[in-house]
Amino acid sequence: MKTFRIGGVHPAENKLSAGKAIETLALPKQAVFPLSQHIGAPATAIVKKGDVVKVGTKIAEAGGFVSAAIFSSVSGKVNKVDAVIDASGYRKPAIFIDVDGDEWEESIDRSSTLVKECTLTPEQIVAKVKDAGVVGMGGACFPTHVKLSPPPGCKAECVIINAVECEPYLTADHRLMLEKADEVLVGVSILMKAAKVTKGYIGIENNKPDAIKLMTEKAAQYPGIEVVPLQVKYPQGGEKQLIDAVFGRQVPAPPAIPINVGAVVQNVGTAFAVYEAVQKNKPLFERVVTVTGKSVKNPSNFLTRMGTPMSQLIDAAGGLPEDTGKVIGGGPMMGKALVNTEVPICKGSSGVLIMNDKEAARAEAQPCIRCAKCVSVCPMGLEPFLLATLSAHKDWERVEKEDVMSCIECGSCQFTCPSHRYLLDYIRLGKGTVGGIIRARNAKK
Amino acid sequence: MANKLIVSLSPHVHSGDSVQKNMYGVLIALIPALLVSFYMFGLGAVVVTLTSVAACVFFEWAITKFILKRERSTICDGSAVITGVLLAFNLPSNLPLWIIIIGALVAIGIGKMTFGGLGCNPFNPALVGRIFLLISFPVQMTSWPLVQQWGSYTDAQTGATPLALMKMAVKGDVNALGQLPDTMSLFLGNNPGSLGEVSALALLLGLGYMLWKKIISWHIPVSILVTVFVFAGLMHWVDPVAYASPLAHLFTGGLMLGAIFMATDYVTSPMTHKGMIIYGVAIGFLTVVIRLFGAYPEGMSFAIFIMNAFTPLINTYCKPKRFGEVVKK
Amino acid sequence: MDLILVAVISLGAIGLIAAVILYAASKKFAVYEDPRIAQVSEVLPQANCGGCGYPGCSGFAGACVKAADAGSLEGKLCPVGGAPVMEKVAAILGLEAVAAEPKVAVVRCNGSCENRPRTALYDGAKSCAIAHATSGGETGCTFGCLGCGDCVEACQFDAIHMNPETGLPEVDEEKCTACGACSKACPRKIIEIRPKGKNNRRVVVMCVNKDKGAVANKACKASCIGCGKCVKVCPFEAITLENNLAYIDPAKCKSCRKCEQECPKGAIQAINFPPRKPKVEAPAGEAATKPAATKPAAAKVETPKVEVPKAEAPKAPEAPKAEA
């Protein structure tokens, strides 16, 4: 069984909602659309208070090349353009829309028939993906059209679809593959066409045997697509780890990116979004979100309109338990702890994880015993104990020298540390500061 | 939302591993060797072990509380118990109590707490204690009681260890090697020596347990053992009369104990696999050099001690292989 | 006897040879350094705090000598030694000292535990920088003090401490040298290095919240809600309102304290002023700044030494920018 070569851990999988079919969530009363739901420049609002919008109406324009447009997921009236606390915990500008009915833009094909044929040229596909505001659905939210437009001098050799879902608890991608296998595969074919390659791999971890079986069977009808079963190991869903596991190549240290080794990595949710955007004219305004947690009454997978407050999803899954200590947007390894449950669902929200007080509390940090477990689990071959110590001492020069910028913030080091040290807290601080120093240095040049 | 939500950076889950678990894991791995020592040396072994552990734990508690004035005591993490057991394992079973207590004081007080406690010490505390005693009380520390005198303590009869015989052989005594116990009894531990070092089998069981529980990685013990085997084998091949067979080297003295429990001490060993192998090879080499050419019959503790000092240097120069450094397939 | 003689002679010879080598090396590899740098270094406090903007005291001394060769010491200030030290430096370099107004660190947040109810719990490394990156903080205010004490750690003069009751840092004005380390360490730029003001008295907006009024109001009892009343009432146009936040320009402020009275939230504070007497004396412009008999304890700081340069050079100090 294939897997990546360096480090890795195996957290308890806890895929509580794996057997639950995707349910469609009711419309929210008010939908909120933060303007920065993706990496890159925030979008610019093109609606104002009082404007009437339909489902699928563009409400914000991309703010640059590395940026994405935002579409309304509801029909109704724009209430205001104000600030809302998003997953980062800070107030960011957002569009508030009061929901009234469910009227869709006429251009969207709402039928469920599978459209296999795609006659568009690669350039047309990229333009359409861009116009639909599609971004990476795995969590990082990198605009998809940017990944499909390789920088000069680079040539893609294959498309790798990330269906690993290595985060514990989350099952959104797993359910999507089981229920929309054909759509996903057509999406992959379109992505391959757009990237001008003939080879596509779908990497699935071995803990989803049903998805591997189904996808392998269906993939036979689509030329060039191969399903690659992978050993269960975190962080296999990391872009670089996945390329290593599937393609056997390692992306060099930053600033190198996957395209430098000829790979274009897309999430399975992105493939589905691309299918809908290209074949059904449907911009990205809804996604599958897992609501889960050991204390949650009814862990579920919901097809949710963007902008729905998380509290509504939690209520639909049985309500917020009394002893809730932490609500996490995303999975337990890389998700963000939220300050309240009114945070809206965005393009990158793959799950809502609820932890009780006991699970949520971190143990007290003890002195480092230099057991080197963090070193052996680091998937990037770094020395987390050293980076954390140097960051705490603010020795930024050495932090940079020790390759802090290679860190993918997967959290394996802190997960495994027997002394419960806050390794990643400090490494993030170091990475952030060094990143700033590097940007300042590049700006000077 | 009645209760306040907790916010913290990811990861939000933990493997559940802890310092205590690792330390108690090592203690469990020490049990077979402990039982063998009780069987071989009887009352003496029990007294020495209990004294050493009690003294180590007491000194750690007292120093934490009265000298460092820290609120949280660290004795619960089990590291002081390990130091106590390892120190006892390095002592002959007829050692008087007061010497053991001095050893424990040096091990914990000078070897560990002076540097700030667990995680900060450059040298393995038990080794510091042992080497201090070996140099200060050479007579008591090198008179090894014969095995299976269950009821005796300081009054036990003593005899020459296999290592002493091997040293005599190197010095020119052509009959010395002939007096060595056979390899099987060396392997099982039926020969005089320090408490815990006699039975290679029991120590290997401990190694197996620690590898299975992923408390340590294989790199250090294997590299030490292989180096000793190869180097001693080479010497044996050159002159079988003066130099004992490599298996005899492997199964005698503190080699197994050192390679499995002392050299693998988290705090004082290198952090990367590459570094661990360099460290292990160097220890193995130094051990054989001291055994064959040095003044002392046993070189394990000195070899580990010397390499402990080199650990920071090894850490500085042996970086793990970064992701992406690998050449394309 | 022989032994001693041999020892003395051989050691003496070794010493002699070494001395010759050392002498030769010191001549051959000598690096010329302006002797004034060493002289200037000598009068500097040698705290190496970097508050002057140079790497340590010797770096600053070098910069001063260079500046002196160019003709003026303007812009060079040792925040620790202040005017007295700068005068000595100027004397060594044969120049007039450029007087600078003494400054002090001001913590512009009054979001104490009482004023700012906690809405979440932060659980992580005790570092403001990390807490800042984690989320908006434990309260509804995403601009205010995080209370982990990065500023306390940054201070080399033991001049800033957390008050466990309010959860906010407090500056010990006697010890503060205005080196700016705390201000740099604060990830939210709450701490401002402000002129000490006449008689050590100053009027400051104790808030950096840029949220809209309603949001800021809900998050903290002592927040600036950007109502603009202070701007209107200020007779000297010293207050500006930007992004829902008022800022008092210390260069223009005449410490009349009208704004303090006008602020509906109590976000504007007058520091080190005597307690207000009912009506008569209070808002009478400059009058309030006269050394009053009821000087509070903290105002003792002003030694005559500090006063001298202020009186001689009433230059307008650089107005610190409101942090973006």
UniProtKB/TrEMBL annotation, chain A:
What is the cofactor note? Binds 2 [4Fe-4S] clusters per subunit.
Q: Where, in this chain's numbering, is [4Fe-4S] cluster 1 bound?
A: 368, 371, 374, 417
- Name its cellular compartments: Cell membrane
| UniProt gene name | rnfC
Tree of life domain: Bacteria
Relate the assembly described in the record: The complex is composed of six subunits: RnfA, RnfB, RnfC, RnfD, RnfE and RnfG.
Q: Which organism is it from?
A: Phocaeicola massiliensis B84634 = Timone 84634 = DSM 17679 = JCM 13223
Q: Which residues form a coiled coil?
A: none
Q: Which GO terms describe its biological process?
A: electron transport chain
Q: What is this protein called?
A: Ion-translocating oxidoreductase complex subunit C
Provide the topology term for how it sits in the membrane.
Peripheral membrane protein
Give one GO term, molecular function aspect.
4 iron, 4 sulfur cluster binding
UniProt key word Cell membrane: yes
Presence of keyword Transmembrane helix: no
Q: Which GO terms describe its cellular component?
A: plasma membrane
Q: In the Enzyme Commission scheme, what number(s) does this protein have?
A: 7.-.-.-
Instruction: Give the enzyme's main class according to its UniProt record, as a single word.
Output: translocase
Q: What is the lineage of its organism?
A: Bacteria, Pseudomonadati, Bacteroidota, Bacteroidia, Bacteroidales
The chain positions of domain 4Fe-4S ferredoxin-type read 359-381, 397-427
In this chain, [4Fe-4S] cluster 2 is annotated as bound at 378, 407, 410, 413
Q: Which InterPro entries match?
A: 4Fe4S_Fe-S-bd (IPR017896), 4Fe4S_Fe_S_CS (IPR017900), Ion_transpt_RnfC/RsxC (IPR010208), Nuo51_FMN-bd (IPR011538), Nuo51_FMN-bd_sf (IPR037225), RnfC_N (IPR026902), Soluble_ligand-bd (IPR019554)
From TrEMBL, chain B:
Transmembrane ranges, per UniProt, are 21-39, 97-115, 127-147, 194-212, 219-237, 243-264, 276-294, 300-318
Instruction: Name the UniProt key words of this record, in alphabetical order.
Output: Cell membrane, Electron transport, Flavoprotein, FMN, Membrane, Phosphoprotein, Translocase, Transmembrane, Transmembrane helix, Transport
Where does it reside? Answer: Cell membrane
In terms of superkingdom, the source organism counts as Bacteria
Enzyme Commission code: 7.-.-.-
What Pfam families does the entry give? Answer: NQR2_RnfD_RnfE
Q: What is its cofactor?
A: FMN
Q: Which residues carry this modification: FMN phosphoryl threonine?
A: 161
This protein's GO cellular component annotations are:
plasma membrane
Q: What is this protein called?
A: Ion-translocating oxidoreductase complex subunit D
Tell me the organism: Phocaeicola massiliensis B84634 = Timone 84634 = DSM 17679 = JCM 13223
Q: What phylogenetic lineage does the species belong to?
A: Bacteria, Pseudomonadati, Bacteroidota, Bacteroidia, Bacteroidales
UniProtKB/TrEMBL annotation, chain C:
Q: Tell whether Phosphoprotein is among the UniProt keywords.
A: no
Instruction: Domain (4Fe-4S ferredoxin-type): give its ranges.
Output: 145-165, 167-196, 212-244, 246-273
Primary location: membrane
- Quaternary structure and interacting proteins, as annotated: The complex is composed of six subunits: RnfA, RnfB, RnfC, RnfD, RnfE and RnfG.
Which one of the record's GO molecular function terms can you name? Answer: electron transfer activity
Cofactor remark from the record: Binds 3 [4Fe-4S] clusters.
**Membrane in keyword set:** yes
Q: Which domain of life is it from?
A: Bacteria
Q: Might you give the EC number(s) for this enzyme?
A: 7.-.-.-
Q: Composition bias, kind Low complexity: at what positions? A: 281-301
The organism encoding this protein is Phocaeicola massiliensis B84634 = Timone 84634 = DSM 17679 = JCM 13223
Q: Spell out the protein name for this chain.
A: Ion-translocating oxidoreductase complex subunit B
* UniProt: [4Fe-4S] cluster 1 binding residues: 49, 52, 57, 78
Report the cofactors: [4Fe-4S] cluster
Q: Where is the composition biased (Basic and acidic residues)?
A: 302-324
Q: What does the entry give for GO biological process?
A: electron transport chain
